[in-house]
Amino acid sequence: MDRRAFIATLAGGLLAAPLVAEAQPAGKMSRIGFLSPTTSVDSRMQNFLEAFRQGLRELDYVEGRNVAIESRWAEGKYDRLPGLAAELVGLKVDVIVAASVPAIRAVKEATKTIPIVMAVVVDPVATGLVASFARPGGNITGLSSMAPEVTGKQLEMLKAVLPKLSLVAVLWNPSNPGNAPQLRAAETAARALSVRLHPLEARDPKDLDKAFAAMTRHRVGALLVLVDAMLNEQRARIADLAAMSRLAAVYGLPEHAAAGGLITYSASARELFRRSATYVDRILRGAKPADLPVELPTKFDLVINLKTAKALGLTIPQSLLQRADQVIE
Prior knowledge:
Helices cover 43% and strands 19% of the residues. The protein is α/β, with parallel strands linked by helices and 329 residues long. A seven-stranded mixed beta sheet has the order 7-6-8-9-10-11-12, with helices on both faces. It has a five-stranded parallel beta sheet with strand order 2-1-3-4-5, with helices on both faces. Helix 4 links the parallel strand 3 (95-99) and strand 4 (116-120). Helix 2 (43-58) packs across helix 11.
């Protein structure tokens, strides 16, 4: 199904979904599992979790009164996710909310019956999490960040800043299944922009120095950093390495700009987490995940760090600045 047909189906599906749901029993305490690949002290994920709680409150769910949230954190170690997913399943929660492909995949392998809501994920079809956007099937539904499509826009922005750009390094984590669709989308966009890509793997923080050394050897002109929990946790170090390498870099998470990255462009993850509460509500009221279409993002954030641009001796085109949601000076 193409995107236009999907959106038409989506609109109809969202209107129909509440009609088949039944009211939640009065006085029932619902239990929601929450699984994240990040650390529990990650301010970014805590901000997103608060957005999810806000979405619940808007739907009259109050923690301690009619809902409880059981959170589990992988501390940036993907190999911990299966065990944490099993813990949540063992608690017999009513629904599990998960963020990122590795976390969602871990929950999917742990249960075929407990409903799973994807708070934010790249392409859930390409990564094998759901059968289709319109009819996900199984016990999973939720929201897609459309990161693969966004990757092409990120390359266009690099090209706007550096019109003569010909070779771009791509920093990616092959341990994250969500990175492969992003890389494929970047390769497609690069061909259209007459740009060559040089992918460099970083499975662990210790791989970063080696990756940046390779960028210097190959004389790349700029850097694209894919969306990944480990790479995001290392955002300050990546920004420092990019600065030392004199590389303009674009990222898929706004936190990278605050840490010194040049440009970030992404779907608003906070809005996706807030909207994921509507899926939890429908499921708690009786809707089946298989019947709830996967939603696409409606809000995107462009952040430009002018301080970094100045340090690199770059001029950001006025057309790009006018589109920015935030400019760091």
